Amino acid sequence: MRQFCLLLLLLLPAEAVRAQSAPSSGGVRGGLWDNFVEEYTSDEERAEEEDLQQHLQELKELAEHPLNINTASIEDLLQLPFLTEAQIEQIHAYIYLHGQMQTLAELRLVPLIDEATRRRISLFVYAEPEQQNAKDKLFARLRHDFSTRLDVPLYYRLGQSRQTGGYRGDALYHRIRYQIGNSRHFQAGFRMEKDAGERYYDSYGAYAMLHDVGILDRAVVGDYRIGFGEGLVMGGSTWSSKSTPPLKTQGGIRPMRGMDEANFLRGAAVTLALGKQFRLSAFGSYRRRDATLTKDGEVQTLLASGYHRTTTEWERRRNVGSTVLGGNVEWNNKGFHLGATGYWQQFSRALNPGTQTYRTIYPKGSTFGTVGVNYGYTRYRLSFGGETAYSTAEGGWATINRASWNIGRNYVLSAVQRFYAYQYYSFYSSALAENSHAQNESGVLLHLQAEPLAGLQLTAYADFFHHPWPRYRMTHSSTGQEFMLQGVYAFSRRHTLLARYQLKRKENGDRMEPHHRVKLQWVFEPSKHLRLQTTGSLHSVLGSKGFMLTQNVRYALNKPGLSFNGQVGWFHTDDYLSRIYVYQPALYSSVSSASYYGHGMTGVLTCRWQSKSGRWMLEGRYGLLRYFDRAEQGTGLQKIFSPWKNDLSFQTRIRF
Predict the structure, then answer these.
(1) Residues 6+ apart with CB under 8 A from 11
(2) Contact present, 268 and 221 (Cβ < 8 Å)
(3) Beta-carbon neighbour count of residue 333 at 10 Å?
(4) Which residues, 6+ apart, have CB-to-CB distance to 443 below 8 Å?
C-alpha cells in the first residue's frame, strides 16, 4: 500500500509537492528563502532586532546545508521553528515503521504534516537513503566552503572627516568565512570581520564540532551557542516568534557560524548520549566583552553592537572578562522529557547599572548563577512543556508553560503562560517575551494555525502582557496586548494572496500607543523562471500614518546559472513613529532589513552567477535610497550630506 501511495505522489508535479531528493548545488533553493522570511517574520516591529537577525542567519545557513531527513535527530529537527514536537515525533515514527524516505513527497503520508509545513520543510531538508558505511567514516565526503564579501559605500559620512572623535578606519566593510565538513559527523570553520569605520579585522572566531560519534552526541571547541529546555536559563540558540506554534525544547549545543560579535560562548561544550534516554551536557567559556565603565571602573552596560570605529568605542573593546561554567541533564522516555540546566558566571569587573528607575532591576555584582528545571510530554496530537528557573541575581523566579493540540492535520491550537519576576535575570535567556530579556513580565499567548480549505492558510494569535516594574520612559507599571490575523490563499500555482492585520497596544512614555499594521501582498509566478511580488504596507499610530509600496522581481535564466532579484519601494510616513519595516533582497548567508520614515524611495538589485558544477558563485548587490523631504540623512558621525545613499556589495563563494 505504501509503495502504491508513493508511486502516486511521485507522479504529481514536482512544483506542487515541492519535493527534493538531494541538496541543491548552491544558493538558497529556488528563491524559497525569501518566501519563508516573508511568512515567518510577521512581527515587523522586531525586524531589526539582533536576536532575530542572528536567528535568520542561522536558519539560512541550515538552508544552505540541509539535513537528510532520514538521519536527522530530534535535536536536529528542533532547529526548524515551524515544526511542533508532535510533527517531529510522527516523522520519526514514519521512518521507523516504513523505512527511509526516498523523496520528500512521502511527507504527504505523515498525518500531521500539512501543506504549509511541507513547503517550508523542503527548504531545510532533503531525502536520501543513508549509505551503510557512511556512519563509520568520521571524515568522509568532506566539503570546503569559502566566501568573502566586500561592501563599498558610494557616499561620504561625517565620521570619515578624520576630525577628533571621527572614525579610525576606512569606510569599507569586509568579511571572510571558511567552513569544512560533512553533514553527519564533522564540521569546522572560522570567520573574520571588519566593520565600516574600523581600522582592523577586530572580530574573529573559529569552531570545530564532532557529531554522533559513539556516545559522543556533540562536542564543540571554539565559539558556540547553547539552548536547553524552553530557553529560560540557556536559550542562546533560538529566537521566539509569536507567528509560529509556540516554543519547544531547544536544540542543545550548536557551533557559532554567524557574524554576531556578542551573543555566543567561547571555549568547549560536550553532550554525551548515555543510552537512548539520557543526555548529559557540560560547557565552559571564557571571553572578553565590550562594556561602558563607570568612573570607578565598574561595568555600567554590556555592549553588543560590535563597533570599534572611534577612539571611544575602541576603549570600550573587550574591557571585561566573563567566565561561564554549566551543564544540563536530559531524560526522554515514551514521550516524556525532564531536564535540569544551570550555570555559574563571574565577571572580572563588578556590574553597576546605575540608579535610573528602569535600570535598578538589572543585575549587580560580579558573580551570578541560574538554575532551572524543564519538563514536558508529547503524545501524538498533544504536547505539553514548561520550565521553571531561579536566579541568584536578586533571588527571582520565572516560569513558562505551554500546550499544543493538533486538531487533525490542518489545525494547531496552542497556549503559552509566562511569568518572569523583575528580580529574575539570565544573561543567556531567549524565551518568549515582549521585552528583549525574560524579565519583568507576565502574560498569556493564544495561537491558532489552520488550513480550513485547500490552498488557504490562516494564522492568528492574541498576546496579553503586563510589566510590573517601570520600563524605559515609564514611571509606573504597564500593560499591553497584541493581536494578529493572517491569511495566505493560493488561487493557483501561479497566484498567491497574503493579507495581514496586526494590532499592538503598548504603553510608551506613560501613554498607550495603539499600532495598527496592515499588509497586502500578491505573488504572481508566470513561469518557473520569473516571480513577481507586489506589497503594500500601512502603519497607523496616534494619528500618524505611514505607507509603503514595494515591487519585487526575481528572475532566473537557468538553474544553476544567472539570476536577478530586485526590489523598488516608495514610502511616505508622517514621522518616525509611523515608520515602515521591510525585508530586502540580500547576498548569500546574509539577511537585510531596514526601517523607513519620511518621504522617499528605495531600490535593491542583486545578481548571482553560479557555475554548473556549483563550485563557484559570484554575487553583486546595489542599493539606493533617495529622500524627497530632506537634504541630509543620519545623525552624529553617521550623517550623510546628501538626500542620496548608494551602496555596492560584492561576494565570492567557492565550494569543493
Answers:
(1) none
(2) yes
(3) 10
(4) 417, 418, 434, 463, 464, 465, 466
Q: Could you tell me which residues come within 8 angstroms of residue 508 by beta carbon, excluding any fewer than 6 positions away?
A: 473, 474
> Cα–Cα distances in Å, from 397 out to 248, 385, 393, 402, 421?
20, 17, 10, 17, 6
pLDDT digits (tens, 9 = 90+) for 587-623: 877 778 889 999 999 999 999 998 888 789 999 999 9
Q: What angle do CA 333, 335, 337 make, to 5 degrees?
A: 65
At 143, the amino acid letter reads R
**How far is the C-alpha of 423 from the C-alpha of 440, rounded, in Å?**
7
Question: b/e map of 144-160 (b: 16 or more CB within 10 Å)?
Answer: ebebebebebebebbbb
Amino acid identity of residue 516, one-letter, is H
Q: What is the pLDDT of residues 539-556, one digit of tens each?
A: 999 999 999 999 999 998
Radius of gyration over every alpha carbon of the chain, rounded to an integer in angstroms: 24
Amino acid at 600: G
Q: Which residues of 590-599 are buried (b: 16+ CB within 10 A; e: fewer)?
A: bbbbbbbbbe
Dihedral angle at the C-alpha atoms of 32, 33, 38, 40, nearest 10 degrees? Answer: 110
